[in-house]
User: Fold this.
Amino acid sequence: MAEHIIELQNVTKYYDDNLVIDNVSFYINKGEFITFLGPSGCGKTTTLRMIAGFDVPTSGKILLHGKDISLLPPNKRPVNTVFQRYALFPHLNIFENIAFGLKCKRVENTYRNADGKEYTKREKLSKKEIREKVEKALALVDLEGFEKRSVATLSGGQQQRVAIARAIVNEPEILLLDEPLGALDLKMRKEMQIELKEMHRRLGITFIYVTHDQEEALTMSDTIVVMSDGVVQQIGTPIGIYNEPANTFVADFIGESNIFNGTVVGEKKVRFCGHDFKCVDDFEKGDAADVVVRPEDIVMCSPSEGDLKGEVISVVFKGIHYEITVKVGKYEIVIQSTEKREVGDKIGMKIAPDGIHLMRPNYTTNLFDGVITKRNTVRFADGEFECDVTQLYPGSHVDEEDYLVLPSGEKLDLTDTEVTVEVGLNDITISDDEDAGGTTGHIISIIYKGDHYRIIVRTEEEEEDFVFASEDLWNENDYVSVVIPKEKIKLTLKHPEEHKGAGAKAEVQS
Amino acid sequence: MIRLRFSRKTLGIPYAVFLLFFVIAPMFVILFYAFTDRENHFTFMNFVRFFSDPTKLSTIVYSLVIALITTVVCLVIAFPIAYILARSKMKRKFVILMLFVTPMWINFVLRVNAIRELFNWMGLLGETNYFNTVFGMVYDFLPFMILPLYTTIMKIDNSLYEASADLGGNAFTTFTRVTLPLAMPGIMSGVTMVFLPSMTNYVVSDMLGNSMVTIIGKFIYEYFGTDWHMGSMVALVLLIVVFVSTWASGGFKAEENARGANL
Assistant:
């Protein structure tokens, strides 16, 4: 078994009041090339910064070789970082930049004194040693002879190499790379990817790499940690993550995907897009499932042979393949193929069982904690919604003074009653008009599911999420208001036994 | 209707005229007076008289020492404040910075008088003349040190501190090898802005030093009451001293001007 060089145990990090890392645990094997992958704001850079020592976890532990280093300052860790925008020292030349770490370093040398006794001294590296190491590092990044140049005279790619040389010259056990290729152009980036991979092989140390570029992650990594919303979504090899995404987020983020809502109709049989398909995942009959099909796993054939039939509505040339969008009934399916089709062609499609991936749906309904207000509306998720409070007590009605009247004639004042609010995935709509709905928030996720979008809106203060299906295309980060029809808000009492007392009190007041 | 078109060159003319009449011409006037006598004949006498008079030489030395102490004290006080304010994530740090700077907006004479009264009340007036002078100058010139330092340190990218720590630098190495060299342009411009007025601003030394402390500016003032020729010579010597010290400290380097904080 490989040695765990770094282990995160239940690490949580808050910046001010914002939760950025939510109880994350995983380990990293020695010598591995591991990538933290996720969209911006997913917590990948924060995780890296905690390993580097620039940030301290709010709770949880970071272990290096099994020892807790959570509070160790960065200069005491055998870890070096290649920064996002290089962070080269502008007042130092290339040699001095790379030698910076070596000049800080103290090594223990053993000497023998006149009496023959051994003693150790902590000493600086000699000028000669430093020069040799810097030259070696410069050679490794192909920048021989650049010692005297100033940082400002280098191109982006060269600065990148200096930043790498400055880190690896210290012979760290772990090299941290924070989106190091982000500022380079595409061609340069591809070259550096290969070089970094090669460097990893030669140095044999652990690389921890942070990127939002899924292709980069797939190309370079031994292991990928997919993160979103401060949570690890999936850890696995590039092949494993691509072929067996753990959930719709991973499927959507890594590569292109067709995602559908499906129902399991039999043993290893799933129904989606109006057809029953054989699959390899064994779910309980009747279960709902998210179905992921990669565009390259869909095979085109003649309409008569296909499981699905449809009409081509768009064809885009992508270099190696065509991206063909087909309309099947109300669903849109994306296919990648080296064969060309014309818009308007009627085609058939087949999907092999191992091309169909079933996943447990992340969301089945929306649940919130709410409170009934004076006006018999319900307050939750930063907002206030009209609702039907009579559903809490069967047969009751509301009188003109806003009291709830039970069939027995007993009057209840529902103000401040705690309730659980349930809203179905199909019962929410959103609007541009901020005042149209009960609350407002930003769209944090949009996933296309063949015939509709699954959208998540997060409110600003309480950070409650509304998950729902929508026919309309919105944009991530749109600021919208959430509209829920009165009759679609399902309420249940949180503490039914307590409320009887409150009812008695209301009677006394009235 | 007349169409007016200005090229960049024509826009420069008023400034050129200004410089000619108010900077270059007066310098020649000073030069002329410094090397002439009362009959307007060319002479080196003023020069010789100046450098053979021990009182004048010691005044120069005193002025330099006072200016030097003032500058160093200002720097020592200003650097930590500027550093802390520039690096803090405090939302209201601007207010604190303003508090340090607002005395600049209050009449200078009023401020110096206030300190004079304070010293008088404490019984220090006329007792500790040099201390009083330096204290007054530090009080007056501190904002000129804080502001350029603050702007320069603000501009230092936070990732550079992190890079230094990452590469094994402790707080001390990070300060001496990253913060200090990168703050140098700000230090230089702060030093220039404090050092020069402390050599010449005799209002402070007169009022707080109880007229017992004579700095070079006072000298010039007094000579221009009686002998313009000698006064011009002292002014010329001061100009050269300042020029040499600025040049020696690298204040003319274009590269540092490019970093923004130099004036």
Observations:
- The longest strand of chain A covers residues 4-15.
- The two ends of chain A are 73 Å apart (CA to CA).
